Amino acid sequence: MESSVRELFERYGKLFRMALEDEVDMDEVASSYAAAFVAASPAGVSVGRNDEQLKRVMQQGFERNRRLGTKDMRLRHVRIAPIDEHHCLAHVAWTAVYDRGGEPDVSIDFEVHYLVQQLEDGPKIFGWISGDEQAVLKQHGIT
Fold first, then answer.
1. Residues 72-112 pLDDT 10s
2. Residue 32 and residue 125: Cα distance in Å, rounded?
3. Are strands 87-100 and 103-119 parallel, antiparallel or unpaired?
4. What does the DSSP 8-state code read for residue 143?
5. Which of 124, 4, 9 is nearest to 78 (CA)?
6. What pTM value is reported for the model?
7. CA-to-CA distance for 20 and 66, rounded, in angstroms?
8. How far apart are CA 102 and CA 122, in angstroms?
9. How many whole angstroms separate alpha carbon 100 and alpha carbon 132?
10. Distance from C-alpha of 7 to C-alpha of 12, rounded to nearest angstrom
11. Which of 64, 54, 5, 47 lies closest to 28 in space, CA to CA?
12. Which residues share a beta bridge with 93?
């Protein structure tokens, strides 16, 4: 399971970088997710389905990242905590790089904790827990 989950996030990072160039197939991005999922952050908890609305929301998120000057998303590390033979918690460390125009780029390290299920069709994200993205961006002068 560990290698396939690591490959899932390597692929996801590649798709994210493609989205920053506005060159990504949203069906391919959505294929990383299970049919339903839960998301938690300081803003609250939400549930959703892997449908056209998910693709629209994700596309809007990528557009927002481009407006903020996000120019790269790098996968630093994946640490897997197995739950059972089909599930794990993946602690995924990312670095986001922001173009600040005439000022030096800003790199922000952060971690997202993903719930992953691996069945016959490979690993799929069915949940994630993240920190306060808005506060971190504000702290670094990116908003």
1. 999 999 999 999 999 999 999 999 999 988 889 999 999 99
2. 6
3. antiparallel
4. -
5. 9
6. 0.92
7. 6
8. 43
9. 21
10. 8
11. 54
12. 77, 111
